[in-house]
Design goal:
globular, eight-stranded mixed β-sheet, Rossmann fold, alpha/beta
Length: 238
């Protein structure tokens, strides 16, 4: 993982670090936006949904709530620039879950090698088809992924790999999204570990209704704070 103008934790003092990251993966190089509050409790890696990317306004709104709570965020473009251009015209790559999961897993694997994120607990937030990628990555990295939150996830696209998930998993689904609600109920029974399905009242698949995305953000924040370990106590004078 490379970071233009990277600086160590001591150099940035008590400020929030913001970086654009370049992440090599076996099938191409992807980009991400890292935001890391001072003394972050952990870092949440975002997997976006169909035809979306790190600029998603919905995911950025959720990320801001996490950052305000002391959680780092990494919003990714899971497709290369060339793939994104092709996908915008044809939809060719947005349902390629193995590809998306490979990229997401590569980003998670890169975190320990980066001086700003080494040692931080990692979680995954997946929306729509990104939810399937998040489940496969959680199953592939049992010792790394501490918790997972899924918003309107197409969890069925994870296939049999979903049975390997052991991280605490929160499913968030809109009340007015019956197809995905039914899919998530099946998936809830298939994942291991602590799990919960929450129906957001009055919300559709995109959670565009008043207050819906705010509820998603707050429940997401609380889930990661619950399952990330607390910060170690700092030595010295009180």
């Amino acid at each position: 993982m490379s970071t233009p103008g990277s600086e160590g934790p001591e150099a940035r003092g008590t400020s929030t670090l913001r970086r654009e990251l370049t992440i090599p993966t076996p099938s191409g190089t992807i980009q991400g936006d890292l935001v890391l509050p001072f003394r972050a409790r952990g870092i949440v890696v975002f997997a976006h949904g169909s035809g979306s990317g790190r600029g998603s306004p919905r995911n950025r709104r959720v990320a801001k709530v996490l950052e305000d709570a002391g959680l780092g965020t990494l919003l990714l473009d899971l497709l290369t620039r060339e793939e994104a251009e092709i996908d915008s015209l044809s939809g060719r790559f947005r349902f390629d879950i193995p590809r998306l999961s490979e990229r997401l897993t590569a980003a998670v694997d890169a975190l320990p090698a980066h001086p700003e994120t080494v040692g931080l607990p990692a979680g995954l937030y997946g929306a729509s088809t990104g939810g399937a990628a998040a489940l496969l990555t959680a199953a592939a990295r049992l010792e790394v992924v501490r918790a997972v939150v899924l918003r309107g996830a197409r969890s069925d696209l994870a296939g049999p790999g979903i049975h390997g998930v052991r991280a605490p998993t929160l499913f968030l689904v809109g009340e007015l999204d019956p197809e995905v609600h039914a899919i998530n109920r099946v998936s809830l029974a298939e994942v291991g570990g602590p799990k919960q399905l929450v129906v957001v009242r009055g919300a559709s698949h995109l959670f565009e209704e008043a207050g819906a995305l705010e509820e998603v953000a707050h429940r997401t924040r609380d889930w990661f704070l619950k399952y990330f370990p607390p910060l170690p106590r700092r030595e010295g004078r009180l």
